[in-house]
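In the previous lecture we treated proteins in isolation. Real proteins rarely work alone, and many bind small molecules. This record shows how such a complex is specified: first the sequence, then the SMILES for adenosine-5'-diphosphate.
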Amino acid sequence: MATLEELALLHTEVRGDALWHLQRLALSWRLLADLSFSDLLLLAPIANEEGGRFVVLAQVRPTTGQTIYVTDLVGQVVTEVERPLVTRAWKRAELTEGEAPVLGSKDRVRLHCIPVRHRGRIVALLTREAPITSVRRPGELERFYLESFDGLAHMVVEGTFPFAREEVELEGAPRVGDGVVLLDRDSRIRYASPNAVSSLHRMGIHAYTSGVGLAEIGFDESAVDAAVRGRIPVIEEIEREDASVLVRVIPLLEDRRPAGALVLLRDVTDLRRRDRMLMSKDATIREVHHRVKNNLQTIASLLRLQGRRLDSPEARQAIAESERRIRSIAIVHETLSREAREAVDFSSVVKPLVRIVEETVATEEGGLHFEVEGDAGEVPGEVATSLAVVLNELMQNAVDHAYPDGGDVHGTVQVRLCRRSGELLVDVVDDGAGLPENFVLGETSSLGLSIVQALVTGELGGTIDITGTGRGTHVHLGIPLAETAATQVVEPPS
Ligand SMILES: Nc1ncnc2c1ncn2[C@@H]1O[C@H](COP(=O)(O)OP(=O)(O)O)[C@@H](O)[C@H]1O
Ligand SMILES: [Mg+2]
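The predicted 3D structure, ligand included, written as tokens:
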């Protein structure tokens, strides 16, 4: 479907600022449709036809009443024959009212043609298409709404609506159906709709009577003041008595002078409460990860103390390895405690993992270098935990077995990370002695590679390839990752 701008450029003479004026009108005119319980159309004359034909640039339906137009009229052409009233309103440049056919049907509507003025010139027409009313006397709400609509329609003709600096219709901004208070030029209440009265009650304001000033009933008037003085709409959230109410004030102008205001109220108390609960839920998850990390660090410290009391080098070694494994898991929880999500940027986990292994390198010269390349992307928390343990084993093996000389070690251990569609590839490559002869992965009874196998093929459903020649050992891991699971933002249960 063509946009308002495309249609205007294609069929009409409306350009530049005038076009922007119409676009702003179409962003804020739901208010007019709701106050008038009517469908609205925005019409502009087709270029060089002197008001003989018009094109429908935009259309809005009321949320307070029934629509007449179930079909979309945008882009349709309206002729003088069909609707002489439109041409008359355009030529006279004044508000015109009468009966006219419903577009595309034999029914009839009460038609109000409202010239849209921009910088002194009429640039388009706004039509209000209302059902022909029965004789039923309108109620109080209808009367005040229609009166407000008339006020705003006059502003459209004067060129003061839409506002030059109108906020674009904000998502979630209060609408007519949320509650309306109509104020006179001294900011005294003339009318409050039932929903508005409910919102006032929520704020602890019960003493509402018409003719009373807002300040007198204890309502913070600052938004109203700002809107009326600045002659622009103002949105503000007021918190009172545990209630949160979003307030949108639209100044009403007559001859460009303040003549009152419309205050739309939306009770957002429940919405805000839910926001706060979600926020505290996130904070709770982070706090839990923080505590798990602290507990794991405590366990690691206890093991270290235990190890120091042992004489057997084998026992010491076993304890030291356990301590390293636990610290690797703690790193993942630490990262998770800093994130609002249940996923971690795995690359940020690798550096601290390298540090754990580096601490165990005996040489003072630091002849063994670790290099980390590539990007692992986001990885779900549980996967990251297993992977951290696996990486720790593989890097530790390079330190322990690839450079057996002890004293003067020279070498480079590379960790390469790569994310492909649905898969994380990890390579740990050293340039050391290579694997012992007759090495078969499945047949090692040693703990380190058994853990690696159990986690990679069992836990993560991935694959391991390990090759070792005289020029070093290369371990290649392929870990399947559902793209969505890895990058998903965890939704708390509703
Ligand atoms: N990067 C490597 N370079 C040389 N040999 C290795 C390497 N990684 C593993 N190995 C061999 O595989 C064996 C099993 O490793 P692992 O299961 O981790 O047990 P551990 O490290 O306790 O010996 C090692 O003893 C070693 O012989
Ligand atoms: Mg090992």
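Summary for your notes: The chain has 13 helices and 18 strands. The chain has a mean pLDDT of 90.
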